[in-house]
């Protein structure tokens, strides 16, 4: 990288220092595919141990100060105690994620199930999650519905939309004035014919109907092949309806690989939209979350790497020469405009991030520092016996 | 097919008799890919000859009484004369399609071009098309924008949305109270990185901002792989925002093959949503249009076949036992619900449609009747010399 | 359907009577997605009960006389006893499917694992399966490898091909002269970056290197979006390398829905290639197998329906007027050729199949007969306690 | 970039200096989509002017010393004169590309057409191209067939394979001992149902049947969504059947954008396979060609940028620490192996390439040097009148 002008460097470093990335408790537990969950050693056995792992990620990266919970995987009697434990470890509790897809009752759907008893059960779970938010002080209720159908004719698409709208309205109503609803969409899986919230348009339409505190979540792995995600980012920002990201990456479907691993250029383009709209800063209200499955790689290290990948993409986005870009765009100079963007992308920002970490009192190389810390060896030795956390518990 | 109960048969036949499918003037001209436009014999050389072909389709099918025009491909001095000619031939003029993609000025976009001069030019064309609607008595202004970018950085996604919104608002304002704006979306092509209206969500958001007379057009070939089109149909009907279809079919991208040729089961599922929402009838305001390219097959015959394919899918959709379906759905009987749908789909409705045509005073076999009519031989002999119509003229 | 000419009818009925479809033992056990396996009642708890279910499918359809086993899910001490039990129930044991993806050792691959110890373990399993084939009298060893990588750089693509070739050669060597190796390919899942046998080309190249008794398996759900499966069918038949189908259907990825449920027209086109190459008959050596997951629908009934769907597609393919088709193709009459094909597809063949079943001494309506039989109520009552079969056991 | 060890630096620079990238004559002419070809100024009007443009690309990049021709777009009476002109300008003539898709006769195919007269005509064109190779001294005959069908039933898939095999065999037979046949595959377009050479497996099978001098061409834009191209690269290299690349990039279908513009990480992964198999050097026999359409951007500058993009991806691939990578792969250290690869990818190689150009006596910044050269202004002034070259001429 050619030397940055001091004001640019200050601006970029300040933005990177203020950046916030939320980790997910379930990323530290075991995960897999329908074919196999490969067990790893040292995996947490309860929410407290997940918090400890998330705090470790923050300790080495400095920009991951909150961790999202998933109910019932992180269900406890005393959330205040968990919050206190997290605080002690240097982090806070983030979004509350509902789960209305792992009960035999939800075979044909949760809030869109044709059976009103099951819809009521799902709604009660969502209310319970709002109660938990009250206890944890979480701002965001994140809703992802596995609801859908597998066969043409199985259920009425429209009737399911009506049921969905009803459940969302009741839940929205239940939120406190400082709480938000974040609605996630996904093209398919586990439903294989229709999915009740399959695309951003559907999520957007429901959020519009609900009100200002309902916003859309973009999971970067939840789109049809060929979808331009940064376009959706731009359009949702323009509409004031982008609430959060679930970051991960994919080559095929919802692969849930480490963010930035499959298409780092796409991640950069997404962050360019964020930076150019000036909504990177936490007060802009967009939550940047990781939602990944580390099926075959060590989990804590993978989360650290993921945080770093987001930082690198962000740093590159911050380096875009916006004046030169705007001029080239205005002039219709296609190659020059592209070149301005690529110039930032091709820059090696790792030295800058090492400097940032130094200024923040962190080791410039989080992975190496984590490995040297012996944390993994410790938990591997300690976390023996009991049941390793996973998607089922 | 087992015998239909007389009331069912009457209901189905009445619905099929009332069905209206709009053909497209450009389907009768030459078309092709970027690699080659294969010239065919007997192709019309002006809008009058296109009208004659469209009237021929209606003459043999009885359900295609209007033809859409495309400006400037169908540009004329006297649209009243063209309308009179159409009337004489037994059909009417349908939607007016704008074209802001075939002038060198539109290299970087039309209404979203960074250059205000070019945006103004594009807007003037849209106003001109509203003037033509006034002359033809057309209800619908159909807008498809090729606008987009080919390279990351080439232009600002958000700025282009703002420019698009401005142009749509000005055009909407210009419409008379009985006129509608139909906004079409398309994933890609000719733009290869971003497209300014790439999906139903974007079209929907713009239409919402405009008002009641702005509605979305679903072109069945304009989606990402794996997109569930009937879901979009259902959601847009529920929102009161489905204005029209551009029917065609595809295996890969925007292949523009004859509707029903690639996936007849999908077409049936789409028509099931239409029938179940009771919006098949013309007064429901949804226009069912064909938008196809008959690159290698004879054009008039292909359009007749396409109309028949839509009729067959519709007939099957009308045969669905809605009470049995609703019961199976309510009971969560996945296989029974699917079976009820498939029972209608597997029914051979061609005898029923032959009966319908007999009752309508038509030949039961439109293709055979068209071939026997000698129409093609006549136009092949007459349409010699001059320039065959195509996308350029 | 217009009356078939008696010779046509005889030919079609004879072909349908001779048709053989192999069911899969695992289809009767519980299955699901990574999100949830919904438990069903009456699910078999051991291979014997699976055999009983498979025999029930054959009892009502008459064309499913064998069932494939999966090792270790169907592992037993005494396969001869199992074979005898099957015979008693009226069916036989079919292909043996290996499983080298569900041991923690296989986290980074089985036969392509960088660790030679694990490769040897995987190979030993494949040898064991050949031993089982000797015991069951099975002709076919079906190999599907989950092997691949999740991250760029994780392993050498070429080195893995070399390891794969070695394992295949050793296994092929181990086969008896009347035994075959069937090699399956799959685009992705569970591997998310590279898969070691991702496409038919790779499977074909390995089978070519092995010899005549190595052939390719086409799983209809294992392709990239837009892949023309019937093309692959035609090309592999032409090369003498099509060994088997794993039938199922999908809208998105490897959804494993009932065959014919997502795109019945595609299934028909596939069967047209089979029929036109005259390789439907069992002596042509192509095994027609079902490989599906009935996650939310009742399993036995779903398998019966799947068998019927294959029969219906086959019946339609048998009805194609081959002389008319060949003539239209030769004349370059695109629409006529398409029409000849569609004429067969649009025919309602269910009456013909009902007649076939009558002639075979079966109930014309297998689903209704199965429901009336009380089989499901009986097994639901009997199969209480124990552990329901699934992918893990 | 941290300082490279001198031996590494020497090795990398030597490889980059030896790299050869072939440009395409048609990239300098006008191109577009079926919707519009936007005319640009200064476009060549004959093969000589195209050569001049290609020579200009080589003058500023130093690694593009040959240009491929396309017949009949570059048809001439005297190819020796053209070759002499090229030589004078510092470049040579490369591969000869056939065109059997732009004659009305080829509406239903060329070498696979059901009509033997048309097949003979297509074959004669291929023979003519071999004659041209003899005149130009070209080594490679590059074959891409637009052949396929648009509608199910239109023609026999197998019969077309037979006809294709015949035409390939006759053409292969016609080649001299120092000449090669390069067979390209493409998923779809302009055919929309079947394509006769749709995937690498089909091309590979035909090349195998032909002999050693028949090899496969990978066009990076010709795959189904989700296809792992570097896997195909690795497999074809392993089989000794990779003959050439047609480089370009795409977000959707065959977008033909500048290589490296859509997914630079993918291009890097492809080059990693090339480098790791040591087949970058020209004597390895793989031709690295550009095949792109510069529809909206200035063409010469776009080709220069494309050459640079390939150089940058290559430089990064050359920087991979192969020992560290092999060790991490052997140890099954997923994250470390990925990290080793990403370390090379994240390196900013532009300073290294500037150094390379300096050592080669070139301007370190080819784009700036080209702009300063006034070449474009000159040709814009000179190339007035006449007919601009395009796909039609």
UniProtKB/TrEMBL annotation, chains A, B, C, D:
Keyword flag Secreted: no
Domain of life: Bacteria
Cytoplasm among keywords: yes
A molecular-function term among this protein's GO annotations: isomerase activity
Record Pfam families: RhaA
SUPFAM superfamilies registered for this protein in UniProt: Xylose isomerase-like (SSF51658)
InterPro entries registered for this protein in UniProt: L-rhamnose_isomerase, Rhamnose_iso-rel, Rhamnose_isomerase, Xyl_isomerase-like_sf
UniProt keyword list: Cytoplasm, Isomerase, Manganese, Metal-binding, Rhamnose metabolism
PANTHER family hit by this protein: L-RHAMNOSE ISOMERASE
Protein name: L-rhamnose isomerase
The organism of origin for this protein: Asanoa siamensis
Gene: rhaA
